[in-house]
Design a protein that fits this description.
Blueprint (H helix, E strand, L loop, with lengths): L2 H5 L4 E6 L6 H14 L4 E5 L2 E2 L14 E3 L4 E5 L10 E11 L2 E8 L3 E3 L1 E2 L4 H11 L6 E5 L15 E7 L6 H15 L21 E5 L2 E3 L7 H4 L8 E4 L5 H9 L8 E4 L9 H9 L3 E4 L4 E8 L10 H10 L5 E3 H4 L3
Parallel strand pairs: 1-10, 1-11, 2-5, 2-10, 11-17, 14-15, 15-16, 17-18
Antiparallel strand pairs: 3-9, 4-8, 5-7, 6-7, 12-13, 12-14
Length: about 325
């Protein structure tokens, strides 16, 4: 399968990695080249920093990002000097990061670039809208570790998920956690209507009861274990933020009747519990839903590890395909060289 076939009908695509050195930048470069070969251009930005020759965290060599004439990027002002292209600054966005203001640049030549965009979804959405004033090309958003929520509907509701041997020495764990992540992203949607004034200041509680697809204001803070400990008519609860293993431990240890009860999240990236605890809650009847679904287009795999614990490529590919109906591509083999 040509990777362009996955994204040809999409206008905004996010690239998410399970870990560093998962092959995400290799996938991104291949998409950029595939789009260019069809006479189209791209508009590129990142939720973190990318494109540097040496990973600043792991001190390992990584692929650089290569773009083409007439492509656009949004990057921090301090990184412009590292962009090996003839460039035209077309907009100063007024969005500031630790590496300077986000600047939109048009490439007047081919070359390597370093990118660092905003880390807040609302700011990223603003950059994407600015992009559309300059081109109808595909917007590509390079994700960052632990910033998976950037792939949600505010910015982009489709993504390519990259995984690899750098995630764990245990192939089974890598496969299981990757499939689990892809499943969390694609949980069924729940049409929850949030109030117009919904923000952290006005709605600071962790849990809210849902009545007729609306939030019910709490007279006092509620607790999952207590609210479902006895026979309860309350069916759905909105989790305002992330759900962790520590938060659900009391619920798991309780005798609460959970069959048919529902937890609703902004999106699947807010579910931070491990696979085992997720399965325990599912077994007891909990339904997980999200306001915004993230559509994973494909999983790409990299059997090579930056730390030396390589996988057998064929076995890795076979195991990943065994547990998902999504396309799985060995990016290291298909696009090496």
């Amino acid at each position: 399968m040509d990777i362009y076939d996955l994204i040809k009908n999409e206008d905004r695509i996010s690239f998410i990695g399970m870990c560093k050195n998962a092959g995400k930048t290799t996938v991104l470069n291949e998409v950029i080249k595939s789009v260019h070969n069809r006479g189209e251009n791209i508009l590129l930005t990142s939720i973190g920093r990318d494109g540097e020759e040496l990973d600043l965290v792991t001190n390992t060599k990584k692929p650089e990002i290569y773009i083409y004439k007439d492509d656009y990027i949004a990057t921090a002002r301090n990184l412009i000097k590292y962009c090996d292209i003839t460039k035209e600054i077309v907009e100063s966005t007024g969005i500031y990061t630790p590496m300077g203001e986000i600047i939109i640049i048009k490439a007047l030549s081919d070359g390597y670039v370093q990118i660092a965009g905003p880390s807040i979804a609302t700011q990223m959405a603003k950059v994407c809208e600015s992009f559309k004033g300059y081109s109808d090309g595909k917007i590509l958003i390079d994700g960052a570790l632990e910033r998976k929520s950037i792939a949600t509907g505010k910015v982009s509701n489709v993504a390519i998920l990259s995984s690899g041997a750098s995630y764990s020495v245990d192939m089974e764990k890598t496969v299981r956690d990757t499939i689990f992540t892809s499943m969390l992203f694609s949980l069924p949607e729940y049409k929850l209507i949030l109030p117009d004034d919904f923000n952290k200041e006005n709605y600071s509680d962790k849990y809210y009861i849902i009545e007729e697809n609306h939030l019910k204001s709490n007279s006092e803070k509620i607790d999952l274990k207590e609210i479902w400990a006895k026979e309860s008519e309350i069916e759905s609860v909105f989790v305002n933020g992330a759900l962790t293993d520590a938060m659900i431990k009391p619920l798991l240890l309780s005798n609460a009747k959970l069959e048919g009860k529902r937890l609703v999240f902004f999106d699947g990236s807010r579910i931070l519990i491990n696979y085992e605890n997720f399965e325990k809650l599912i077994h007891r009847g909990i339904i997980f839903s999200c306001i915004e679904r993230i559509n994973i287009l494909a999983i790409t795999i990299n059997p090579f590890s930056a730390y030396g614990n390589h996988y057998d490529a064929e076995e890795f590919l076979e195991k990943m395909r065994e547990y998902t109906s999504l396309p799985v591509i060995n990016i290291a083999e298909k696009y090496r060289g």
